[in-house]
Amino acid sequence: MNNFIRIVLGIMFLSCGREASFTVTGDVEGLDDVMVYFELGARQVDSVKAVGGHFEYKGNTLEAPEYITVRSGNNQWGGRFWAENSRIKITGSATGSCEITGSRTEDEYQLYREHMKPVWMAKEAANSMEDSVFMEFARRYPRSQVSLNHVYNCRLLHKYSFPRLNVLFQCLDTTAFKGRQWNTFMEVYNIDRKLQPGCTFPAFSFPDVFDTSLSLADYKGRYLLVTIGSAGLDEYEDGLLSRKELYDQYADKEFTMVDILLERNKEKMIKVIANYGIKWDLVSDCKYWDCYIVREWGIDHICQNFLLDREGKIIARNLSLGDLKKTMNDLK
Protein backbone atom coordinates (compact mmCIF):
# COMPACT_ATOMS: atom_id res chain seq x y z
CA MET A 1 0.00 0.00 0.00
CA ASN A 2 2.78 2.40 0.92
CA ASN A 3 4.55 1.65 -2.37
CA PHE A 4 1.29 2.32 -4.23
CA ILE A 5 0.89 5.67 -2.47
CA ARG A 6 4.46 6.60 -3.30
CA ILE A 7 3.92 5.72 -6.97
CA VAL A 8 0.70 7.75 -7.13
CA LEU A 9 2.35 10.71 -5.43
CA GLY A 10 5.28 10.41 -7.84
CA ILE A 11 2.95 10.52 -10.84
CA MET A 12 1.14 13.52 -9.36
CA PHE A 13 4.46 15.26 -8.75
CA LEU A 14 5.60 14.69 -12.34
CA SER A 15 2.27 15.91 -13.69
CA CYS A 16 2.40 19.08 -11.62
CA GLY A 17 6.01 19.71 -12.57
CA ARG A 18 5.51 19.29 -16.31
CA GLU A 19 5.99 22.63 -18.08
CA ALA A 20 3.32 23.96 -20.37
CA SER A 21 4.11 24.11 -24.08
CA PHE A 22 2.40 25.73 -27.03
CA THR A 23 0.30 24.18 -29.75
CA VAL A 24 -0.89 25.68 -33.01
CA THR A 25 -4.00 24.23 -34.63
CA GLY A 26 -4.93 25.40 -38.08
CA ASP A 27 -8.08 25.15 -40.16
CA VAL A 28 -7.20 27.06 -43.31
CA GLU A 29 -9.38 26.62 -46.37
CA GLY A 30 -7.30 25.88 -49.47
CA LEU A 31 -4.31 24.57 -47.55
CA ASP A 32 -4.47 21.01 -48.85
CA ASP A 33 -1.79 18.32 -48.62
CA VAL A 34 1.16 20.66 -48.09
CA MET A 35 3.82 20.90 -45.42
CA VAL A 36 3.48 23.75 -42.94
CA TYR A 37 6.73 25.11 -41.47
CA PHE A 38 7.19 26.87 -38.14
CA GLU A 39 10.20 29.11 -37.66
CA LEU A 40 11.52 31.14 -34.75
CA GLY A 41 13.97 33.79 -35.89
CA ALA A 42 16.23 32.56 -38.68
CA ARG A 43 16.17 28.89 -37.76
CA GLN A 44 13.63 26.33 -38.92
CA VAL A 45 11.91 24.76 -35.95
CA ASP A 46 9.66 22.04 -37.26
CA SER A 47 7.00 21.10 -39.78
CA VAL A 48 3.69 19.27 -39.97
CA LYS A 49 1.47 18.27 -42.86
CA ALA A 50 -1.82 20.02 -43.57
CA VAL A 51 -4.54 17.65 -44.75
CA GLY A 52 -7.79 19.13 -45.99
CA GLY A 53 -6.79 22.47 -44.54
CA HIS A 54 -6.21 21.08 -41.03
CA PHE A 55 -2.91 20.83 -39.19
CA GLU A 56 -1.71 20.70 -35.60
CA TYR A 57 1.75 21.53 -34.34
CA LYS A 58 3.00 20.89 -30.81
CA GLY A 59 5.93 23.11 -29.95
CA ASN A 60 8.44 23.09 -27.14
CA THR A 61 8.07 25.18 -24.02
CA LEU A 62 8.82 28.84 -24.65
CA GLU A 63 10.79 30.71 -22.02
CA ALA A 64 8.98 33.87 -23.10
CA PRO A 65 6.56 34.83 -25.89
CA GLU A 66 8.27 34.81 -29.30
CA TYR A 67 7.38 36.15 -32.72
CA ILE A 68 6.91 33.07 -34.89
CA THR A 69 6.67 32.58 -38.64
CA VAL A 70 4.32 30.01 -40.15
CA ARG A 71 4.28 29.27 -43.88
CA SER A 72 3.31 26.58 -46.34
CA GLY A 73 5.96 24.51 -48.06
CA ASN A 74 4.93 25.91 -51.44
CA ASN A 75 5.37 29.45 -50.07
CA GLN A 76 1.87 30.43 -51.19
CA TRP A 77 0.60 31.09 -47.66
CA GLY A 78 2.09 32.34 -44.44
CA GLY A 79 2.24 34.95 -41.73
CA ARG A 80 3.75 35.96 -38.41
CA PHE A 81 2.32 36.19 -34.92
CA TRP A 82 3.23 36.12 -31.23
CA ALA A 83 3.33 32.59 -29.81
CA GLU A 84 3.21 31.69 -26.13
CA ASN A 85 2.60 28.58 -24.05
CA SER A 86 -1.08 28.13 -24.90
CA ARG A 87 -3.41 26.56 -27.44
CA ILE A 88 -3.33 28.83 -30.49
CA LYS A 89 -5.76 28.54 -33.39
CA ILE A 90 -5.44 29.82 -36.96
CA THR A 91 -8.63 29.92 -39.00
CA GLY A 92 -9.39 31.43 -42.38
CA SER A 93 -8.45 31.06 -46.03
CA ALA A 94 -5.11 30.46 -47.73
CA THR A 95 -6.04 33.07 -50.32
CA GLY A 96 -7.61 35.55 -47.90
CA SER A 97 -7.27 36.64 -44.31
CA CYS A 98 -6.77 34.47 -41.25
CA GLU A 99 -7.71 34.98 -37.60
CA ILE A 100 -5.38 34.01 -34.75
CA THR A 101 -6.86 33.24 -31.34
CA GLY A 102 -5.51 31.79 -28.11
CA SER A 103 -2.39 33.95 -27.76
CA ARG A 104 -2.77 36.75 -25.22
CA THR A 105 0.44 38.36 -26.46
CA GLU A 106 -0.87 38.44 -30.04
CA ASP A 107 -4.12 39.98 -28.77
CA GLU A 108 -2.10 42.61 -26.91
CA TYR A 109 -0.01 43.24 -30.02
CA GLN A 110 -3.11 43.96 -32.10
CA LEU A 111 -4.41 46.26 -29.34
CA TYR A 112 -1.02 47.99 -29.33
CA ARG A 113 -1.17 48.52 -33.10
CA GLU A 114 -4.66 49.97 -32.85
CA HIS A 115 -3.67 52.15 -29.89
CA MET A 116 -0.59 53.53 -31.67
CA LYS A 117 -2.27 53.97 -35.07
CA PRO A 118 -3.36 57.62 -34.53
CA VAL A 119 0.16 58.58 -33.45
CA TRP A 120 1.75 56.78 -36.39
CA MET A 121 -0.66 58.44 -38.81
CA ALA A 122 0.01 61.87 -37.29
CA LYS A 123 3.75 61.23 -37.45
CA GLU A 124 3.48 60.23 -41.10
CA ALA A 125 1.55 63.42 -41.85
CA ALA A 126 4.16 65.50 -40.01
CA ASN A 127 6.99 63.76 -41.86
CA SER A 128 5.43 64.67 -45.19
CA MET A 129 5.60 68.35 -44.17
CA GLU A 130 9.13 68.25 -42.76
CA ASP A 131 10.99 68.70 -46.05
CA SER A 132 8.99 71.71 -47.21
CA VAL A 133 9.29 73.39 -43.80
CA PHE A 134 13.05 72.83 -43.74
CA MET A 135 13.46 74.14 -47.28
CA GLU A 136 11.93 77.45 -46.18
CA PHE A 137 14.64 77.70 -43.53
CA ALA A 138 17.46 76.56 -45.83
CA ARG A 139 16.59 79.11 -48.50
CA ARG A 140 16.94 81.84 -45.88
CA TYR A 141 20.15 80.34 -44.48
CA PRO A 142 21.78 78.46 -47.39
CA ARG A 143 25.30 78.98 -46.00
CA SER A 144 24.51 77.92 -42.44
CA GLN A 145 26.21 74.86 -40.95
CA VAL A 146 22.84 74.15 -39.35
CA SER A 147 21.27 73.75 -42.80
CA LEU A 148 24.08 71.41 -43.84
CA ASN A 149 23.71 69.45 -40.61
CA HIS A 150 20.02 68.85 -41.32
CA VAL A 151 20.73 67.53 -44.83
CA TYR A 152 23.64 65.46 -43.46
CA ASN A 153 21.36 63.82 -40.88
CA CYS A 154 18.66 63.17 -43.47
CA ARG A 155 21.11 61.00 -45.42
CA LEU A 156 23.37 59.49 -42.75
CA LEU A 157 20.80 58.95 -40.01
CA HIS A 158 17.42 58.82 -41.72
CA LYS A 159 18.60 57.17 -44.98
CA TYR A 160 16.79 59.48 -47.39
CA SER A 161 16.63 58.30 -50.97
CA PHE A 162 18.83 60.27 -53.35
CA PRO A 163 15.97 62.02 -55.20
CA ARG A 164 14.45 63.20 -51.92
CA LEU A 165 17.83 64.21 -50.51
CA ASN A 166 18.86 66.04 -53.66
CA VAL A 167 15.89 68.40 -53.42
CA LEU A 168 17.13 69.51 -50.00
CA PHE A 169 20.74 69.64 -51.16
CA GLN A 170 19.87 72.11 -53.90
CA CYS A 171 18.86 74.64 -51.21
CA LEU A 172 22.46 74.85 -49.92
CA ASP A 173 25.19 77.20 -51.06
CA THR A 174 27.88 74.58 -51.57
CA THR A 175 30.67 77.17 -51.73
CA ALA A 176 30.19 77.91 -48.04
CA PHE A 177 31.19 74.58 -46.55
CA LYS A 178 34.36 72.71 -45.70
CA GLY A 179 35.63 70.41 -42.97
CA ARG A 180 34.95 66.86 -41.85
CA GLN A 181 31.14 66.89 -41.97
CA TRP A 182 31.07 68.41 -45.43
CA ASN A 183 33.70 66.01 -46.77
CA THR A 184 31.91 62.97 -45.33
CA PHE A 185 28.58 64.08 -46.75
CA MET A 186 29.99 64.75 -50.21
CA GLU A 187 31.70 61.36 -50.30
CA VAL A 188 28.38 59.61 -49.62
CA TYR A 189 26.45 61.98 -51.91
CA ASN A 190 28.74 61.31 -54.88
CA ILE A 191 28.55 57.54 -54.35
CA ASP A 192 24.75 57.72 -54.22
CA ARG A 193 24.67 59.82 -57.38
CA LYS A 194 26.49 57.08 -59.31
CA LEU A 195 23.90 54.47 -58.34
CA GLN A 196 20.83 56.21 -59.75
CA PRO A 197 18.65 55.20 -62.74
CA GLY A 198 20.55 55.60 -66.00
CA CYS A 199 23.94 54.85 -64.43
CA THR A 200 25.89 51.66 -65.10
CA PHE A 201 25.78 49.32 -62.11
CA PRO A 202 29.25 48.65 -60.66
CA ALA A 203 30.92 45.37 -61.55
CA PHE A 204 31.02 42.69 -58.87
CA SER A 205 32.22 39.15 -58.36
CA PHE A 206 31.13 36.95 -55.44
CA PRO A 207 31.04 33.20 -54.74
CA ASP A 208 27.73 31.38 -54.38
CA VAL A 209 27.08 28.62 -51.83
CA PHE A 210 29.01 26.18 -54.06
CA ASP A 211 32.02 28.54 -54.27
CA THR A 212 31.29 29.26 -57.92
CA SER A 213 32.30 32.83 -58.68
CA LEU A 214 29.49 34.87 -60.23
CA SER A 215 29.97 38.33 -61.71
CA LEU A 216 27.75 41.01 -63.19
CA ALA A 217 28.94 39.97 -66.66
CA ASP A 218 27.34 36.54 -66.15
CA TYR A 219 23.91 38.16 -66.27
CA LYS A 220 24.42 40.31 -69.35
CA GLY A 221 21.56 40.03 -71.81
CA ARG A 222 18.92 39.60 -69.11
CA TYR A 223 17.01 41.97 -66.89
CA LEU A 224 18.45 41.56 -63.41
CA LEU A 225 17.10 42.35 -59.96
CA VAL A 226 19.99 42.80 -57.52
CA THR A 227 18.94 42.63 -53.87
CA ILE A 228 21.38 43.51 -51.09
CA GLY A 229 20.39 42.00 -47.76
CA SER A 230 21.27 39.49 -45.08
CA ALA A 231 19.79 36.03 -44.49
CA GLY A 232 17.98 35.92 -41.17
CA LEU A 233 17.08 39.61 -41.34
CA ASP A 234 13.30 39.90 -40.99
CA GLU A 235 12.97 42.45 -43.79
CA TYR A 236 14.93 40.20 -46.14
CA GLU A 237 13.08 36.98 -45.34
CA ASP A 238 9.69 38.71 -45.29
CA GLY A 239 10.26 39.69 -48.92
CA LEU A 240 11.33 36.27 -50.15
CA LEU A 241 7.85 34.96 -50.93
CA SER A 242 6.97 38.08 -52.93
CA ARG A 243 10.21 37.94 -54.88
CA LYS A 244 9.76 34.21 -55.49
CA GLU A 245 6.39 35.06 -57.04
CA LEU A 246 8.08 37.73 -59.16
CA TYR A 247 10.80 35.31 -60.27
CA ASP A 248 8.31 32.61 -61.25
CA GLN A 249 6.19 35.11 -63.18
CA TYR A 250 8.98 36.69 -65.24
CA ALA A 251 11.70 34.01 -65.43
CA ASP A 252 10.74 33.20 -69.02
CA LYS A 253 11.00 36.87 -70.04
CA GLU A 254 14.79 37.21 -69.92
CA PHE A 255 14.63 38.13 -66.24
CA THR A 256 16.58 36.75 -63.29
CA MET A 257 17.71 37.75 -59.83
CA VAL A 258 20.78 37.67 -57.61
CA ASP A 259 20.98 38.42 -53.89
CA ILE A 260 24.25 39.84 -52.58
CA LEU A 261 24.20 38.99 -48.88
CA LEU A 262 26.23 40.38 -46.01
CA GLU A 263 27.05 37.19 -44.11
CA ARG A 264 29.69 35.74 -41.78
CA ASN A 265 29.36 32.26 -43.31
CA LYS A 266 27.17 30.29 -45.72
CA GLU A 267 25.02 28.54 -43.13
CA LYS A 268 22.07 30.95 -43.23
CA MET A 269 22.26 31.21 -47.01
CA ILE A 270 21.91 27.44 -47.35
CA LYS A 271 18.94 27.46 -44.94
CA VAL A 272 17.21 30.19 -46.95
CA ILE A 273 17.61 28.21 -50.16
CA ALA A 274 16.31 25.01 -48.53
CA ASN A 275 13.47 26.56 -46.53
CA TYR A 276 12.09 28.83 -49.25
CA GLY A 277 12.91 26.85 -52.39
CA ILE A 278 15.01 29.67 -53.85
CA LYS A 279 15.90 29.16 -57.52
CA TRP A 280 17.99 32.29 -58.13
CA ASP A 281 21.58 32.97 -57.08
CA LEU A 282 22.62 33.90 -53.55
CA VAL A 283 26.20 35.14 -53.27
CA SER A 284 28.46 36.47 -50.51
CA ASP A 285 32.13 36.95 -49.68
CA CYS A 286 31.22 36.16 -46.03
CA LYS A 287 32.92 39.30 -44.75
CA TYR A 288 29.67 40.65 -43.31
CA TRP A 289 29.77 44.46 -42.99
CA ASP A 290 33.43 44.44 -44.01
CA CYS A 291 32.32 43.57 -47.55
CA TYR A 292 33.76 46.13 -49.96
CA ILE A 293 30.34 47.15 -51.31
CA VAL A 294 29.48 48.71 -47.95
CA ARG A 295 31.94 51.55 -48.53
CA GLU A 296 32.33 51.57 -52.30
CA TRP A 297 28.57 51.44 -53.00
CA GLY A 298 27.48 53.40 -49.92
CA ILE A 299 25.44 50.48 -48.57
CA ASP A 300 24.80 51.59 -45.00
CA HIS A 301 21.36 50.02 -44.63
CA ILE A 302 19.61 46.92 -45.94
CA CYS A 303 17.56 45.69 -47.69
CA GLN A 304 17.98 47.51 -51.01
CA ASN A 305 17.28 46.50 -54.60
CA PHE A 306 18.36 47.58 -58.09
CA LEU A 307 16.61 46.64 -61.33
CA LEU A 308 19.10 46.51 -64.22
CA ASP A 309 18.56 46.37 -67.97
CA ARG A 310 20.20 43.84 -70.29
CA GLU A 311 23.38 45.94 -70.48
CA GLY A 312 23.74 46.41 -66.73
CA LYS A 313 22.33 49.93 -66.48
CA ILE A 314 20.08 50.83 -63.56
CA ILE A 315 16.41 51.12 -64.52
CA ALA A 316 15.14 51.76 -60.99
CA ARG A 317 16.04 51.10 -57.37
CA ASN A 318 14.26 50.18 -54.14
CA LEU A 319 10.99 49.35 -55.85
CA SER A 320 8.10 47.65 -54.08
CA LEU A 321 6.76 44.37 -55.47
CA GLY A 322 3.89 46.21 -57.12
CA ASP A 323 6.20 48.74 -58.74
CA LEU A 324 8.56 45.97 -59.86
CA LYS A 325 5.70 44.15 -61.58
CA LYS A 326 4.49 47.33 -63.24
CA THR A 327 8.01 48.15 -64.44
CA MET A 328 8.55 44.63 -65.76
CA ASN A 329 5.23 44.74 -67.62
CA ASP A 330 6.26 48.04 -69.24
CA LEU A 331 9.61 46.68 -70.45
CA LYS A 332 9.80 45.46 -74.03
Automatic annotation (TrEMBL):
Specify the DUF4369 domain's residue ranges. Answer: 22-109
Q: Name one Pfam family in it.
A: DUF4369
Which superkingdom is the protein from? Answer: Bacteria
Q: Which SUPFAM superfamilies match?
A: Thioredoxin-like
Report the InterPro entries cross-referenced here. Answer: DUF4369, Thioredoxin-like_sf
The record ties this protein, via Gene3D superfamilies, to: Glutaredoxin
Q: What is this protein called?
A: DUF4369 domain-containing protein
